[in-house]
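Bumping with the actual sequence this time:
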Amino acid sequence: MLNWTAEIRIVEELPRMVLPAGTQTLSCTGDACVLTATEDFTHQDLNLIRRQFPHRHVTLDGDVITVWPRPKEEQ
């Protein structure tokens, strides 16, 4: 696991969070976030992110973890 390091390209001002090892980029638009990695993320990586966003839909697709935006009525 990583905290903010020089290895990670930060696209814009983002909330502080613990990122899985191998995270290459983290980008957020609104309250949606996308993490990409140099290799496939694991289910442990997915669970790490899910614990940080407990009431959000978080998915894993190989080398991409997506934290989906909250439905409009919740915003």
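The tokens above came from a reply further down the thread. The helical segments are 43-52.
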